[in-house]
Amino acid sequence: MSMSADINTSTSASNTSGSRLIPFAVNLWLVEGPVVSFYGFPYPTRMAVISIPDSSMDTSTEVSKCSWIWSPISLDDELASEVERTAGPVKHIVSPNCIHWLFMKEWQDRFPQAKMYASPCLQERECAAGLKFEPVESFDEPHPSYAAEIDQTVFDGGWPKEVVFFHKPSKTVIFTDLIQRQPIESLTGIKGWIMKMDGVGGENGSTPREWRLLFRLGRKRDKARQTLDHILLDWKPEKLVIAHGQCEQSNAAAVVESCLHWIPPKHNEYRH
Ligand SMILES: [Fe+2]
């Protein structure tokens, strides 16, 4: 279970060319952002940039590319130009859950032509005021404008609800907070101890225990199992991207199943 150390340890990582976009797969880059505070706990930020065919352009003469942005980090002029230079004009910006929205307004203001996509619950939240999201019929289906390259499904725990994405060409599954593998060496002091007790540290990190409890209390674990089976059996992911901690370049299906061990097998909802 290993991949480039650049992705795991630095908040200002850059590749050998000096770009902050670190190649993760063909047409998929990761960018490390600053650490933000979440109820006083330090959380490093990370976004993904995927270059996809631009369905809004006439592609009869040449293939046009555009950028699809997942969980955008804090934006500056340099990052904006690097993204567009590398992956194409920014046309799609997605928030995967109702926590990862913090920098959406910056991106909307900078790229007003881009479509913004909410996750379940986010659109109704007061914090989302001022964000203009695309209307969607179901968060379990990718928007037609990017569906050729990227699939998605929802882990519905009542609250929380998280949209998990799948970049089909590279077989990369993209989780946000449902799988957290915070670098164990970064979990220091009382807050680090609490995060370790919450089950979100190291290679064996998982879903925060309070989220697992919400799935259990809401009797949502059967549905979670269906969603997980869909990811593992239909998507067959090979690479794993997560927002907090160690990503994986291979063996993603086994890692995901191990990290989500709290979701019981089918028809055995209350086994443990
Ligand atoms: Fe997060």
Provide structural commentary.
By secondary structure, the chain is of the alpha/beta class. The protein is built from seven helices and ten strands. It has helices at residues 5-9, 77-87, 104-110, 189-197, 209-217, 221-235, 252-259, and strands spanning 22-25, 28-38, 41-53, 65-70, 90-94, 115-117, 150-156, 161-167, 172-174, 239-241. A hairpin with a 2-residue loop joins β2 (28-38) and β3 (41-53). It starts with a helix and ends in a 13-residue tail after the last helix. The relative contact order is 0.13. The model is unreliable at 1-12 (pLDDT under 50).
Approximate shape: globular
From the 3D structure, determine the CATH topology: Metallo-beta-lactamase, Chain A
Strand content: 15-25%
CATH structural architecture:
4-Layer Sandwich
Q: What is the average per-residue confidence, as pLDDT, rounded to a whole number? A: 90
Strand order of the largest sheet: 1-2-3-4-5-6
The top-level CATH class is Alpha Beta
Oligomer: single chain
Helix content: 10-25%
Ligands bound to this protein structure = fe (ii) ion
Q: How many separate structural domains?
A: 1
Tally the helices. Answer: 7
**SSE string:** HEEEEHEHEEEEHHHEH
Largest sheet entry: 6 strands, mixed
For the secondary structure, the number of strands is 10
Low-confidence stretches: 1-12
Structural class by SSE content: alpha/beta
Q: Report the CATH superfamily.
A: Ribonuclease Z/Hydroxyacylglutathione hydrolase-like
Rg over C-alpha atoms, rounded to the nearest angstrom: 18 Å
Q: What is the terminal separation in angstroms?
A: 27 Å
